[in-house]
Amino acid sequence: MSDASHQPYDDAFKAAVAREPRAFFALLGVDVTGPVELVSLRGAASLDLDYAAWVPVATGRALFHVEFIRSPNAKSPIDVITWHAVIARREGAPVRTIVALLADGPRHGFTSPLRHGALSLDVTILRLRDCPGLAESPELAELALLTVPRRRRAETLVVASETLGRQGRLDQLQTLLELARALKMGSSKIKKLERHMSGLLQQAEERGIGIGVEKGIGIGVEKGRVSLALSLLRSWGVPTNTDTERALAEMTEAELAAVLASARAGESIVGTPDLVPAGPP
Predict the structure, then answer these.
(1) 60 or 263, which is more confident?
(2) Where are the beta strands (DSSP E) in 75-123?
(3) Domain boundaries, the chain
(4) pLDDT value at position 274?
(5) pLDDT band per the 50, 70, 90 thresholds, residue 220
(6) Average pLDDT, the chain
(7) Contact present, 144 and 134 (Cβ < 8 Å)
(8) What are the distances in angstroms from CA 91 to CA 20, 54, 68, 108, 207?
(9) DSSP 162
(10) Hey, CA dihedral for 103, 64, 77, 6, is it positive or negative?
(11) Strand partners, 52
């Protein structure tokens, strides 16, 4: 998307594909079988390429170029053809180009093969409209706003925000808020989403503090258990060192209780691996 006014949409798709390449390519109808390797586009930034990557598929490794276009115009075909050529030359391999048209983007005769003068390029053109279940998919829910017609944006915003909220995906919620603003969805809907996000942030903070306290208590209990066991062993004349401490920390409650019972009864526990220092030869 070369139009600066489309930057929020551009950024949303780029972030989503970088974060969830498998889910994203599934949306495009491509079954990914392994890790995706991004193609470096350094030096080509002025071309405003959207996305290029080596993608493992059932038949091997394929080079993909994806462009997200909201409103195709007379310049769009030559732009896509140029970007396709740049990637093919850099990678020295055939390129499969996919043009993803967003929900409200009219086609304006935008069909494959793309033509510009004597140039022609076969591409896959997908219209991302009413993608089933996208708003309920945590991986890509924030993109749902861009794949539904205007009349369905309000309900989609609610479903997507609830999906992301349940998962605690605050970065994606922020993207959803930015898209709602870019689509001029109305101040009341945006304020409602902002309040929802504020509540989720507070819950996340409280949950984080709770987890930290619980973890701290757990660590304290574990250290206290080992420290107490070491003190008891020493009081009963059992020699200890750092190996003893490590061995005690790895024991279950039952194993530790058995060792302490033996030591208190005056029984030898030298045979317990790593528990007490070996005696002189």
Answers:
(1) 60
(2) 96-101, 114-116, 119-121
(3) 1-129
(4) 44
(5) low
(6) 75
(7) yes
(8) 23, 10, 21, 31, 47
(9) H
(10) positive
(11) 65
Q: Which two tokens stand for residue 134?
A: 């996208």
Amino acid residing at 52: A
Per the CB < 8 A criterion, the answer to whether 124 and 112 are in contact is yes
Beta-carbon contacts of residue 157 (< 8 Å; ≥ 6 apart): 145, 176, 180, 185, 189, 193
Instruction: Quick: pLDDT tens for 132-149.
Output: 788 888 888 888 888 888
Q: What is the pLDDT of residues 221-251, one digit of tens each?
A: 566 667 767 777 777 778 888 788 888 888 8
Other CB atoms within 10 A of residue 83 CB: 22
* Mean pLDDT confidence for 118-145: 81
Beta bridge partners of 120: 115
DSSP assigned state of 174: H
The CA distance from 213 to 215, in Å, is: 5
The Cα angle at residue 51 between residues 23 and 14, in degrees rounded to 5: 60
The one-letter amino acid code at 185 reads: M
Number of H-type helices and E-type strands within the chain: 8, 7
- Among residues 125, 54, 124, 126, the alpha carbon closest in space to that of 94 is found at 54
Question: What are the distances in angstroms from CA 10 to CA 29, 54, 68, 152, 260?
Answer: 20, 20, 7, 21, 65
Report yes or no: 53 and 21 within 8 Å, Cβ to Cβ: yes
**pLDDT at 17 > cutoff 70:** yes
